[in-house]
Design a protein that fits this description.
12 strands; ATP binding; 41% helix; globular; Rossmann fold; alpha/beta; 6-stranded mixed β-sheet; 14 helices
Length: 348
């Protein structure tokens, strides 16, 4: 088991909360758009040749969700998470999941101090702004489940005492789809906690040559400079939550998610949590585009990464070569797109 140092104390100061949302007026998103463009550029300077990957990752961060990255070894899954963390100047906790990892290795442990005759809580790596969980499917279900409370409620309970986690808080878990012997696939209830799933993929030839040029002698991560900080990200997340989504867009989200529950090729469709997370992610994508309202285009762009990993195909569909991604694409094509009126923009 290997972990990188977590934060030096318990939870960092809380910068606002879910209930403290400042409604963004005209022009209020300018700072967010400019900052996130610079964060995107910083991330893409390290993870080259993957168009759109940084946008989805940053949308999940702004929407206060969590990200599951599935791909083969060596394509930059961990590098992606580290690049985001360095760009926003936040604490990073890295956990290498192994079969012998214990829940306390993640959350922390109470240690008895003989001098004071008191227990002292030593926080684990989850007390970080960005938690990188490498190969999460190699740990036992008991250890995997230690992340559930952290991801859903932003807190963890150790020996009956609840500790708040710092904000922003993002879990980036990686899975290796090969070498599955001795692994514990994430149960559906835990996969549903991840707002989105992405694959990094192989870079094209020109991007891979560029990577060789940049990393021949050093790693770009060593020279990556922060362009914003944690309190700013929390403030941006509050603005994202307050973005306007019209009733037409909400009906479109619900209709798209509900269609997964009725499709004959699916044994399990997306949950109501998926509807909520799809809307929140779409708000984040709209904010990064400089809009104070959500469009159906934002929903369509995020349908694959937000919905596909939540779906369970029937045996017949799987044997026929159907994939969750292709099925989501089919539903996006089939679900009627609402025609937005001026009233569907934010009313001021």
């Amino acid at each position: 088991m290997h972990t990188e140092p977590a934060t030096s104390g318990l939870a960092e100061p809380q910068f606002g909360g879910p209930g403290s949302q400042a409604v963004p007026g005209p022009g209020a998103l300018d700072e967010l758009v400019d900052t996130m463009a610079r964060v995107r550029a910083a991330v893409e300077s390290v993870v080259t040749g993957r168009p759109g990957l940084a946008d989805i990752t940053l949308a999940v961060l702004l929407a206060e969700g969590h990200l599951l990255v599935e791909d083969v070894p060596g394509v930059g899954k961990t590098t992606l998470a580290k690049a985001v963390a360095r760009s926003i100047d936040c604490h990073v906790g890295r956990i290498q999941f192994t079969p012998d990892l214990l829940p306390s290795d993640l959350t922390g442990v109470n240690i008895f101090r003989t001098g004071s005759h008191e227990f002292e809580f030593r926080p684990g790596p989850v007390f970080s702004n960005i938690v990188i969980g490498d190969e999460i499917n190699r740990a036992s279900p008991k250890t995997q489940s230690a992340l559930l409370e952290c991801m859903e409620e932003g807190q963890t309970t150790v020996d009956g005492t609840t500790h708040q986690l710092p904000r922003p808080f993002l879990v980036v878990a990686t899975q290796n789809p090969v070498e599955m012997e001795g692994t514990y696939p994430l149960p559906e209830a835990q996969r549903d906690r991840f707002m989105a799933r992405v694959t990094v993929g192989y870079p094209d030839t020109s991007a891979e040559i560029l990577m060789l040029d940049r990393q021949e002698a050093t790693t770009p991560l060593a020279h990556l400079q922060a362009v914003t900080d944690g309190p700013s990200m929390v403030r941006f997340a509050q603005q994202v939550r307050a973005l306007y989504a019209s009733p037409s867009v909400k009906r479109y989200v619900v209709g798209l998610v509900a269609a997964t529950r009725e499709h004959p090729s699916l044994r399990l469709g997306a949950s109501p949590r998926a509807s909520l997370q799809l809307l929140r992610a779409a708000k984040a994508m709209a904010a990064m585009a400089g809009r104070d309202h959500v469009l159906p285009d934002d929903v369509q762009r995020l349908a694959r990464p937000v919905l596909a990993h939540r779906l369970i195909l029937t045996t017949e569909a799987r044997l026929s070569g159907v994939t969750p991604e292709s099925l989501v694409d089919e539903l996006v094509q089939r679900t009627p797109v609402p025609a937005l009126e001026p009233a569907d923009r934010r009313p001021f």
